Amino acid sequence: QVQLVESGGGLVQPGDSLRLSCAASGRPGSSYTMAWFRQGPGKEREFVAGISGSGGTTYYGDSVKGRFTISRDNAKNTVYLQMNSLEPEDTAVYHCARVRAYWSGTYSDALQYDYWGQGTQVTVSS
Fold this sequence. Notes:
Number of strands: 11
Number of helices: 0
Shape: globular
């Protein structure tokens, strides 16, 4: 079993930055693609960012490109999401997820992920 635990969320003002962390335990497998998704109040789950097992390939949702950066430290079994220039529209619960052993290669497809964390709340408000 794999456990994913997110941390780093909080209440910030527009324009501020936050860094989220996702710590994996159990048998996470450093070769697995990981991703961040979010779900805002009254909204559908949205793909935020994904990163390949090596960290050499990253993908971002259109709404966060240029503002968010995903990275990973495989020695620590941790994935990060650096969020800059936060906007009220970024308010959501942020979840990290690990891709299935055999997946389609589509980072933004939530069905390709079989392990999910409980999430961390990010609230952007003045």
